[in-house]
## 1
Amino acid sequence: MPDPLVTLQHVTKTFEHEGRPLEVLKGIDLEIERGEMVTIVGPSGAGKSTLLHLIGTLDLPTSGRILYEGKDVTRLGSSDLAEFRNRSIGFVFQFHHLLPEFTALENVMMPGLIQGSRRLEARARRLLDEVGLTDRLTHRPGELSGGEQQRVALARALLMEPKLVLADEPTGNLDSQTSASVQALFFDLNRRHGITFLIVTHSRDFAAMMPRQVSMKDGRIDSDERRAQPLENQGKPT
Amino acid sequence: MTERRPLGFWTAVLCGLGVLQLAAVLAFAATSTLWFQAQLENDLLWVRLVIGWSTIQLSLLLLSVGILQRAARMPRGSRGRARVFGLSAVSAGHAVITTVSVGILLWAARVSTGHVLGGTVASLLFGLTHLVYDELDLDWVPTLYHGATMLQTASAAMLLSLSASCWFLVPLERRQRFWLGFDVALVIAFVVVTAILPLSPTEGDDASLLRAVIRVSVTTVFAVRLALRLVGPLLAAFERIGFRTMIAARHLRAKKTGFLAASGTLSVLAVAVSSCMLISVLSVMGGFRADLTKKILGNNAHIVIDKVYEELSDWEPLLERTRQTEGVIGATPYLQVEVMVSSLSNRGGAILRGIDPDTVSDVTDLAKNMTHGKLEYLKDPGRILDSSVDTTKSGPVDAMMEEAERTAARGLPEGPEEEAMPGLIVGQELARALRLVVGDRVTVVSPRGDLGPSGPIPRTRPFRIAGIFYSGMYEYDMKHAYIDLRTAQRFLRAEGRISGIEVKVDNVEHAPAIASRLVSKLGRDDLRVRDWKQMNQQLFGALALEKLAMFITLGIAILIAGFSVFGTLTLLVQEKRREVGILKAMGTPARGVIRIFIIEGLLIGAAGGLMGLGLGFVLTFAAEHFGIQMNPEVYYIDKLPVHLDPTEFALVGASTVVVCLAATLFPAYQASRVRPVDALRYD
Ligand SMILES: Nc1ncnc2c1ncn2[C@@H]1O[C@H](COP(=O)(O)OP(=O)(O)O)[C@@H](O)[C@H]1O
Ligand SMILES: [Mg+2]
């Protein structure tokens, strides 16, 4: 059996706060398979964002290992890590984090530009088309609505055909109508492109639609449930 | 809201008028000295001036009051209200003050004919020409005038800065239309002046100087506008180079928060001013060096062949062989000794040189430098007195005194050898010190005397002034005197001997090589062969040292400008933290981030450097072509010498870039250390 896409082994994270150590993650073990849709739920302060950052290699664990397809990424050098992030991981944040000086199209192309590749423009246009923003290509983030910005961020996350897309409360700032359409987009992309999603959410409805639900509490995994029959169709906008 | 547009429009008009008025004051201050002297008696011009000036001031005043009223009706807290208030109040005050000061000036010029007008740099910039009130008894007039001038300077400065800030209240579209019109007019003006006006003025013609100044000014404004127009397209082109340049250019183009924008503008200006200063000073110093080199090369041989302690005998074959050496275009023998020259009124030490009048012109500019008399008189002293009619070229008073002295001198009983008295050429300063004109008698005392019963007796001999030269080097004009070589040999008891041979070469830069060629060709190791660089080593060494010191001192100014680039970049990094976090999260490596900010710093530095070098070029170009007068009595140079050296421009540009690069390193490193997790934290 091939290695799972991501494997976390006894991952802990301790922050230093005013001289005192603060253990935020207290030993996480987790495996995520290719093509899975996983949601992480839990009360605020449980360590969900921290975990996502560690998986996304934005930060290093205090102890433990994080393996991608069997390879330990916690030992990579910083430029190798940057390269790895660029090619293998897509991020969608709660506050979308687009670059304000660039148009929607340029923002989507950005991961490709970092690689020095300009040939991804056609793909960026297609992705923006796919998220329903065909006629917003030259808008800057300031000229887009919250939902539109979030969809641009999603298109950007998908540009490099990453193995894994990490989303931290992607619908946290959107009204229910808009969140529903963004959520539907996640499922659609997962089904059609087989992209693995790891999504932190506070939305019960959204979490309920996901096939696998990891719930965290106080820096530990509280439960890890897989549902045979996800309630996906309920969330679809009419 | 309906108030806003007309207000914007009239504010623009006010800005324009204010600037126009300042320009008028500037032009007035710049020309008044010349102009008043010429036109004081012209009544028609007088009336026109008063009417024209009052019209400008009155319209400015009316407009200001009108706008002040409108501004007062604006709702409290609306955008630009304070600025408009300030601008209209200041310009109203400015109109009143200017009217007072110009009124006083005109009136004073009218009632007193004996006054003197003179400008200072500060008064050129903002105020008016200062009044030196020789014949005005009224104490309060100058006091009032100076008070008004000071107030005016302050209000002009305020007016300028307020105009600049009010300008941005005018709707963007209008501003763009204005600049479009301005640029079109400018292009036309540029084409016209390029076609019809000269770049260099003809010597001593004020009108052609004015035309050249106009051409250079229009060309400069044109270049500035062109550069500004090109900034956008250039940055756009720069963006297309690659990812890092794209981010950098976007950061610089993006609208910034006020403080960062101010800091960025200031650092560009700081770099510009310091590099402009450096290049201007270096150009002037280079000018002095070039001037000095020219004078040294004109008055001296390029190579001198002599013996260290002795004189050369049997030198004719040496001279012949020197002349046949490749690269040598002239050679002449000389005999040199220090003497004392006395006239009736004074005496002074001099270096007496016996020269060969036939060949000396092959080597030095002596013949060209003669202001009175002729070099040939050395060979034929009998002609001196025949032609001494044309010698009184100096001012009337001098000439009268000299005439009187000369008559006195002639009155003296002259010896029987009158006809045979040999000629002597002296420098202008020595001639002035000894009060000599061509035809005068002097006595030269040589240290090489006869041996008398109680030791050596100095040898004296009368000479007649055959000519006066002006070399432009005080040293020479004060210390050098020339006589015929044979006369010198007889007088100095050096029959058949010379001190050395002076050589001129075809290319002064090859002088060292030709000197060593001469050494091997002459094949005599008792001879010393020195080129001009060796002989003036100390002088050029001192100049080079001085220049280096200046470069370092002003380089420190660039360094300080570098600090401001550092500050701007630190601010920029602070402002772009979140974006750096995003870029890093998306996989930009740390060195990529470093490069982005280095590029930004370099762009700031390049903008400043180019501005500074451009401005420096315009300044030095103007100084070189239009000439800045200097007092020859003080500096022994009549025009500020300027020498534009492309290598120096490159050097200053390179140092600017290096300093800016160094200034970017730390902020860029800081940026690369931003952790995406910290930058992306939501709160
Ligand atoms: N850099 C940090 N320094 C100190 N404490 C931190 C830091 N980052 C996160 N924490 C703490 O870790 C805990 C978990 O945070 P987070 O992972 O953002 O929780 P969640 O996303 O589940 O709401 C919080 O209590 C927070 O205060
Ligand atoms: Mg969180």
Note: The CA atoms of residues 44 and 202 of chain A lie 9 Å apart.
## 2
Amino acid sequence: MANITLTINGQKVTVPSGITVLEAAEMCGYSVPTFCHEKDLTAPGACRICVVEIKGWRNLPPSCVTTVAEGMEVETESPAVIEARKTILELLVANHPLDCMTCEKSGDCKLQDYAYRYGVTSPTPYEGEKKQFAVDDSNPYIYRDPNKCILCGKCVAICRAVADRNVIDYAFRGFNTKIATFMDTELKDSACVYCNRCVTVCPVGALSDRNMMGKGRTWELEKEEVTCTFCESGCKFDVNYKNGKVVGVTAKNPSAGRPLCLKGRLGTEFMKNPDKTDLPLVNKDGEFVEVSWEEALGIGPIVEKINALKK
Amino acid sequence: MQLYRAHVLVCGGTGCVSSGSKKIQEAIVDELAKQNLDKEIKVVETGCHGFCEMGPIVIVYPEGTFYCQVQVDDIAEIVSEHLVKGRIVQRLLFKAPLTEEQVPSYKDIAFYRKQHRVALRNCGHIDPEHIQEYIARDGYEGLAKALTTMTPQQVIEEMKKSGLRGRGGGGFPTGLKWEFASKSPGPKKYIICNADEGDPGAFMDRSVLEGDPHSVLEGMLIGAYAIGADEGYIYVRAEYPLAIKRLKVAIAQAEELGLLGDNILGTGFSCRLHIKEGAGAFVCGEETALMASIEGSRGMPNPRPPFPAVKGLWEKPSNINNVETYANVPVIFLHGAEKFASMGTENSKGTKVFALTGKLRNTGLAEVPMGISLREIIFDIGGGIMEDKKFKAVQIGGPSGGCIPEEHLDTPVDYDSLIALGAMMGSGGLVVMDETSCMVDVARFFLNFTQKESCGKCTPCREGTKRMLEILQKICDGNGVPEDITTLETLGAVIKNTALCGLGQTAPNPVLATLRYFRHEYEAHINDKKCPAGVCTALLEYKIVAENCKGCGACARVCPVGAITGEKKEPHEIDTSKCIKCGSCIEKCKFNAIVKG
Ligand SMILES: Cc1cc2nc3c(=O)[nH]c(=O)nc-3n(C[C@H](O)[C@H](O)[C@H](O)COP(=O)(O)O)c2cc1C
Ligand code: SF4
Ligand code: SF4
Ligand code: SF4
Ligand code: SF4
Ligand code: SF4
Ligand code: SF4
Ligand code: FES
Ligand code: FES
């Protein structure tokens, strides 16, 4: 691929043509905030936090969906850019429950990080009505707090990326827009399979793995990556340790072709977490009931082998 | 072919149908049969004439007599007086608003005199459900010329020469758009017609589809030939059942005559057109959202580039134009690009249809040459302000436009001049406001619309318009603070600069334009807690002017809360702490003694 030369923050750089301004800026060591962009998955250009200034352009274009061009003069942190990003953050914070002290995501939350970076505090200049949606704790695997959702849309994209999942989408309009299941039911009554793909990409605390709730702050946890052996997809999970003890297994942001599934996660948990005593819960006709590990994993005879392995 | 000595045109547009034109038409047919005239006189159902306010409309040819607000009871008289004896029924003629003079003929009515009908050329003059009538007025000749004597490249050159710019809002040069789509490689391309028409108050596209659907089909086919498309969609809002019906009829008739479908006119060029009914959300009119909607997804805009010409419907190169844009195309090929380009201004050629609404004497659809002044549109065609009130502002471009005050009324109207004034052409909605309109309230009204219609995808539009709306509401409620004006301006600028699609990028316009021209009204609300136009209820106080009060007590009797007291024949008084501002007293007072402000 041919190269092109452009200027980023006054510095002339040569990059491959066809890449985005965001990629070029990152190659040069500039960090540009992003919420909705997820490499190799989705670039809807929705959140607008990644806007930059390009000389001669009418608007502030989002760097994640703008392709580099020869001679382009990009500013990633000009006063106009900072004003726009700060305004966008203030708008998000004005419509957000400021729950950082108890939020599971605290310490690993993009909204928190960017608010810190751009000095956004509460109250913002835009206080007003806040969304008041019901939280969804209808199931044992995912805790959804739509009030913390910033509508980046990544969960929708990653769920849809596996054939037949497509469980959630945008619903309603204007200020009332939210991410909802078909007919806006609780997750329990949807076609969700609790693969937790959505949880892995959520940049804020709108989607949490219930298994980990209350088990420690993000910075107290150490993660060990493991590859699932239940099928040939080879999905990755994190085994989370606190003070050297396993506290739970979480799904890891999957690459293309790796579907993730509940069975894999439960099975990994079963193998890695010797302290896990609760039986797995499976949705049967709309209610979650405890089932044996054999049934949950659909692997009667294998369990014995696993148990043997564990010893 | 049967020859008739006279034709009676009955308007069958949505406006007239709702004022009862179907019954009128039946009555005329019955009456003609009764008087044995049905072999001599033909009744034709036409599309909209643009003067729906005066409907139901009946026109008698060859004279071109324009009867308005016709009732069933008038039919016998029209038939026996006009059609039998040749005597015009004076009382049903249009009355000029100022002179009260009765105007017999279509062309002499001020509403039509300054109009120049290109896109609407056939509307109201032909039966839209008979392709022969369209063909009789040179329909499909432009297509035949393009297909048989021109290469696609020549068609594009001709379009570029005509200077036609998109009538759907952005005003992008149509020839250039076609060129992009034609140069985009790929064996499969689509031609799309945007008939979503979501601007509240606009109905020009509906009128064209109802009154002259073939002009749109012909324009699309010429476009399809130019870009190399063999399939197309017309995206019509489902709330336009009559337009959909007429389009279906038109498509079937054109297919039957070999003007649509395979091997059109024996030239080897083929193109099929489908109708897609839209769900009705305003944002679905935005081109990328429209295509998503055709594909079956939620109507949400996507970033451009890639533009539709490169990656459009089902990722194939596509060309999308507005109804009125396509309706102009056949004329360019019939009479030549030069002729078309002779109308209009340097950078805006041809005509534009405006939907006149608001406090005007004549409301309706008016097609005028580009470059005409707003004053001519409002005062000559629109007949000036109702009840002789004072003009205050005109909102152009629907909810994404801006309002223009008196001092700019002489600006020639074209795409660029309107943008310079902080408004925009948009789809051509034109709402006239008089001195009784509060500009803060107007801005709030439009912003409320855009906020509700925001698709919710991007942060600045979804969250930002909500906050602007809350601030406007606060100002109207009398709780505004001086900083609110700066907040509106800075937030508005960020939204314009960062929103994803045209909806968000233009949503702050009504606010920014009113702040530009009517800042004093905002200041009066904020600093003096007064609404100068007397609209914002929270800021009003009802008062009795003692000199005018005759002490009749009528007001005190209607006041629901007993706020008015006074001795008989003595000036009365309103206790403002009790008054709930219902306005009943002001209506009751015969002596104009009660004022609000
Ligand atoms: C929010 C929004 C709504 C729109 N609605 C319409 C519409 O109803 N009809 C239309 O023709 N264009 C509409 N447009 C403009 C289209 O995106 C597009 O520019 C147009 O159809 C192109 O046709 P033209 O070049 O012939 O004007 C809308 C744009 C936006 C941003
Ligand atoms: S989502 Fe982020 S910003 Fe919101 S409460 Fe949780 S940690 Fe704080
Ligand atoms: S858990 Fe999996 S199936 Fe359920 S919504 Fe998330 S991504 Fe979709
Ligand atoms: S739930 Fe999370 S991932 Fe989904 S849209 Fe909201 S913030 Fe984004
Ligand atoms: S500007 Fe508004 S309507 Fe357009 S994409 Fe953004 S949220 Fe949706
Ligand atoms: S109705 Fe008018 S004139 Fe009569 S008492 Fe009231 S204010 Fe006076
Ligand atoms: S506005 Fe209504 S409440 Fe107030 S004084 Fe008049 S009638 Fe009474
Ligand atoms: S990261 Fe670029 S628009 Fe969201
Ligand atoms: S519908 Fe009859 S004039 Fe418009």
Note: The first helix of chain A runs from residue 21 to 27.
